[in-house]
Amino acid sequence: MILRRLKRLIYPPLSADPEKDVSIKLLYGLMYVTFAVAVSYRIIHPLISEKPKNVYYSFYLIPSAVILCHLLAKSGRVKLGAHIMIFLQWLALCIVSMREGGVYATSFSQFMIIIVLASLILGQVGALFYTLLSFSTGLLSIYLKSKGMIPAPNYPVGEWSAFIGNSVGIFMAWILMKFGLSGLSKIREELSRAQIDAKLGGITLNLETKEVTLSKEYRIMLGDKTAKESTTILMDQFLERYVDGDNKEKIVSELAEGAKHFNDPSYSTEFIFRTKGDDGKTRYILAKGKYKDSVIGYGTGQDITEKHIAGEEIKASQELFSKVFKLSPYATSISNYEDGKYVDINDGFTELLGYTREEVIGRTSVELGIWLSSDEREHFKEKIKKDGFLYNEEVTFRAKDGRYIQVEFSTRFTVIDGEKRMINMVKDISSKKEAAELRILNNEISSQNELIAKQKAELESTLEYLQKTQNQLILSEKMASLGQLVAGIAHEINNPIGVIRAANESVKNHFDRVLDRMQEAASVLENLGNEAKLEFQTLLKKGRAYQEIIPPKVVRAKTKILESRLKELGISESRNIAEGLIEAGLEEALEDFPKLFIGEKIQHIIQYALDEIQASRSSKLVDMSVDRTSKIVYALKNFSHFSNGGPKAPVDIRESIDTVLTIYQNQLKSGIEIIKEYEAGIPIVPGYSDDLLHVWTNLIYNAAQAMAFKGILKINVGAGGGKDHICIKISDNGPGIPESIQERIFEPFFTTKAPGEGSGLGLDIVKRIVENHGGSIGFETSPKGTAFLVILPQ
């Protein structure tokens, strides 16, 4: 403990101020040298000097000055100690020079050393003071020598010559130090100005004294515009005066952590803290520093307020973008501009396309197979290079599960964190497309529900067009088949027209007398009990819901039975009411609704109910007839449409066959039972719709003729004929094809029909059409029937 205190007493003080620390080192260097010289002189001088030995007691001033200066420096008064040290040094030299001949003395020239030290430690003013003092001492020594008060040594050079020579040396030393220190001061000022402009300042920490030294530039950075020099304050004062809020603990923690690594020259600390300056402004300071030993730490502070605030704003903007990016309902992604690799995706991307984040990041849309066409992607890529963005480009993407998705694709070039990026947004418009298609379909349905007269006129126009089109053999055959159907089609249309006319008349009569009947029914219903009213409502609902049309023969048979029972109840219009009940599916009405058939006005109640039911059934008959007519017109339009050449289009084989069956229904319904066996999931095939309609027309009509329009027509559609093919099988239960002609049935102009009934080109054209589609046709025949098999590629 005593040794430690003694060591602390002897060692020079440490200063956190770099300038003061340099001054202390220079001062102590002077102290060590002069103390050593004084001690050496006191020991050596008596041994070598001539007798009588003169003792220069003035040299005892030097150790005294050293001790006094050390004590003052340890107490913190370094500058005062320096003044006393240099002055006593100068005084000792002055006394020695006076005793040894004034300006002739060797010690007189050593005043230059004092001037140099004064310049370095006390500054230019101190150097000038000791220069003038030394010059005055030379003049004084000449005066005292002339009076005989100091000895006059015998030198060949005159005393004025010695004075002038030494004075020139003294003034030159002062001038050199002045200009040297002026240049150094100018450099320091320029460096200081550069630091001020860069909002940079130095700071030094003394862990032993808990002091912080702030450079002039640091003080100006903190808002003290009047600062002229550095200042040293306690660490607690610095924290209280300049550091804002909870940043105090942060600074103490960072400094303590740095102190642990003072032995590591590569270690440095760096952190940002918030200050409150002398001008009341809040600033953000970037602090950097390290420890040079276990006591002294040094570093810099830089005002980065604007940069920090800008960074915080950028951070807030990035956080906002991140939230918008993550919460966007659209499939949003960020990708590299150069290689197209995904950098980030949001949940909307995963939901739409089915890929997880791990599956996407670091890969391209091409690698994932999202684009259906590489040419389309390259086209968009070139457009981005030219314009820098895409906006709502309609394109089809492929999801992970293979689904095709109609989307609007938008993208824009940007720079994120110094990297070229593309921000991509994909909007699913499948529902929008479906809605548009639905609107188109609704328009088509609306157009099909136009007046019957307009539909009939359209049909006549179509028939007239078909009769005029006879340019090719295929069309000739088709027109020949169509000619056979005209009468049947007219009949098919006249039937629903007749139903509509009759139903319309029924509805008209219903509304003509509805007011009178309602008044009659109201008077009767008021007197009904609750159970009878409930049965009345149930009767109406059941009759309106019944949709079957009972054959007249069955109606007549059942009417006789029910009529007799109604007569027993005293109903005068028993036959009409019985027919109405039977047609409405209410033949068990007496058993199901017994309460309604009790009372005097049974006939009024039942007749009112039957009128309401009949009006409802008439409305349904109109709907059914219009629907039937629309289907006939639609099928006939498809059948009569002809397109020569051009690219193949998707064809639904089942719909194509059903179109032919609709056209031939009038000729097939009376004696032929049609059995359709369509496998589920049969794909759409590429082909020429008009040509395939001709194939089914020829094969179905030939089968009907082979059975004399009485028998079973069976149509099978399913997979067959190898991979990626479908098989259409049309079979009948006719007598079969004779073996003698089986090899010739596909020959042109070969026919077994009577003259005028066939051209012999039907099956030849069918075969050519099938082969033109890349398929094949064959048949199986026996006395029990014939089946034609058509194989088409998918």
TrEMBL record:
Alphabetic keyword roster: ATP-binding, Coiled coil, Kinase, Membrane, Nucleotide-binding, Phosphoprotein, Transferase, Transmembrane, Transmembrane helix, Two-component regulatory system
Histidine kinase domain location: 625-794
Catalytic activity as recorded in UniProt: ATP + protein L-histidine = ADP + protein N-phospho-L-histidine
PROSITE patterns recorded: HIS_KIN (PS50109), PAS (PS50112)
Residues forming coiled coils: 438-472
Enzyme Commission number(s) from the entry: 2.7.13.3
Transmembrane portions of the chain: 26-44, 56-73, 80-98, 164-184
Molecular function in Gene Ontology: ATP binding; phosphorelay sensor kinase activity
EC class (word): transferase
Keyword Transmembrane: yes
Domain PAS: 338-386
Protein name per UniProt: histidine kinase
Taxonomic source organism: Leptospira neocaledonica
Taxonomic path: Bacteria, Pseudomonadati, Spirochaetota, Spirochaetia, Leptospirales
